[in-house]
Amino acid sequence: MAERRIAFNDVLFRDKVVLVSGGATGIGRALVWILARSGARVVTCGRSPDKLDALRSELADHGHEVLAVPTDIRNADAVAALFAQMPERHGRLDLLINNAGGQFPQAAIDMSANGFRAVIDNNLLGTWSMMQTAARHWRDTNTPGSIVNVVAVVDRGILGAAHTAAARAGVIYLSKTVAVEWMPLNIRVNCVAPGTIFTEGMAGYPEEAKKTFARSNPMLRLGDPWEIAEACLFIGSDASSFTTGEILRVDGGGQLWGEQWTQGKPDYFAG
Ligand SMILES: CCCCCCCCCCC/C=C/C(=O)SCCNC(=O)CCNC(=O)[C@H](O)C(C)(C)COP(=O)(O)OP(=O)(O)OC[C@H]1O[C@@H](n2cnc3c(N)ncnc32)[C@H](O)[C@@H]1OP(=O)(O)O
Ligand SMILES: NC(=O)C1=CN([C@@H]2O[C@H](COP(=O)(O)OP(=O)(O)OC[C@H]3O[C@@H](n4cnc5c(N)ncnc54)[C@H](OP(=O)(O)O)[C@@H]3O)[C@@H](O)[C@H]2O)C=CC1
């Protein structure tokens, strides 16, 4: 990531302040790298201080300074404290990328109330807390802003992940709604929906399921975190200044052809 080619020039983000949630691993880590190398001042957060320390030192080894603040996006006080640090450190915020999230694969019929709630809390309520806090900051400082929410391709549901399908659909329709409500505040709100992307997050999925992930799209391969990061850069930046309320699917065509079973394909559908 220190060397990889970037599709955009290095002017787009020079001196912009960008907050990326969940930046220590996977797609978030690619985002932090690409933004830092594009000249942005990057702030990130996550629950694990150890993972954030590792990220910070990896970037520092290549001359990039990143502010990484342990924060659980489900905790409203922690989110407020995170946002309070930014003006102090960087003077402003230009772009928020809500990438933090996660779920576990399980048949909907077996989900406990608490398990379902945990995923809604993380992906819908946590993301909303970040969105609203950012919007209030931009309103109160009378400055423009841009939000990118990393969601998922929910058009055909997400088999074996009903909780996250519900949460991501919630984020998509929240985004469409506030894209209009917040336009008078000069805030754009868009979503990037990754297909199946090879990240650390895959560790929690059964081997049987993982063997089939490449067949979730007509390219017959997994996506790469960098491919999602570049899409976020495009839609979050001035390169897409006339775009708001949009969902950019980056899934190798998976919304058109392919199957994704997070728990493996049941016998009923086999053959
Ligand atoms: C986004 C769409 C993806 C679609 C699928 C794509 C398929 C291929 C993708 C492979 C690549 C990865 C995709 C990713 O999304 S990667 C991101 C994955 N990363 C993570 O999921 C990590 C973050 N996840 C979590 O932190 C947790 O899973 C979560 C937030 C959901 C819960 O955290 P919390 O700390 O609140 O959890 P608790 O331990 O307190 O448990 C709360 C209840 O949830 C139940 N639970 C938790 N884990 C499981 C499990 N593995 N199986 C069943 N139930 C689980 C837990 O039992 C609690 O409920 P109860 O009190 O009733 O027991
Ligand atoms: N990979 C894929 O195929 C797909 C991924 N996505 C979504 O893209 C995003 C990134 O996924 P990916 O990179 O694969 O997964 P990872 O698990 O690698 O990354 C998720 C990051 O979010 C952080 N995080 C999770 N919950 C919280 C929380 N409550 N507060 C703060 N940080 C949190 C994690 O750090 P920590 O555990 O330290 O908090 C972690 O660094 C997620 O929202 C994911 O669901 C969507 C579709 C497909």
Account of the protein in words:
- With 271 residues, this protein is an alpha/beta fold.
- The protein has one domain: 3-Layer(aba) Sandwich (Rossmann fold), CATH 3.40.50.
- It is 38% helix and 14% strand.
- The chain has helices at residues 26-37, 49-60, 76-90, 113-141, 162-181, 207-210, 225-236; strands spanning 17-21, 41-46, 66-70, 95-98, 145-150, 187-194, 247-250.
- It has a seven-stranded parallel β-sheet, sandwiched between helices.
- Strand 5, helix 5 (162-181) and strand 6 form a beta-alpha-beta unit.
- The longest helix is centred in the middle third of the chain and has 29 residues, at 113-141.
- The mean pLDDT is 96.
- This is Peroxisomal trans-2-enoyl-CoA reductase.
Key structural traits:
271 residues, alpha/beta, Rossmann fold, seven-stranded parallel sheet, 7 helices, 7 strands, 14% strand, globular, binds ligand L4XM7KOE, binds NADPH dihydro-nicotinamide-adenine-dinucleotide phosphate, SDR_fam, EC 1.3.1.38, Peroxisomal trans-2-enoyl-CoA reductase
Largest sheet: 7 strands, parallel
CATH architecture: 3-Layer(aba) Sandwich
Shape label: globular
End-to-end separation in angstroms reads: 40 Å
Number of H- or I-type helical stretches: 7
Query: Uncertain runs with pLDDT below 50, 5 residues or more?
Result: none
CATH level-4 homologous superfamily: NAD(P)-binding Rossmann-like Domain
Cross-sheet strand order for the largest sheet = 3-2-1-4-5-6-7
The helix/strand series, from N terminus to C terminus, equals EHEHEHEHEHEHHE
| Percent helix range | 25-40%
Compute the number of structural domains: 1
Structural class: alpha/beta
Name the ligand types.
ligand L4XM7KOE, NADPH dihydro-nicotinamide-adenine-dinucleotide phosphate
Taking Cα atoms only, what radius of gyration do you get, to the nearest Å?
A: 18 Å
Q: CATH class, please?
A: Alpha Beta
Please report which band the strand proportion falls in: under 5%, 5-15%, 15-25%, 25-35%, 35-45% or over 45%: 5-15%
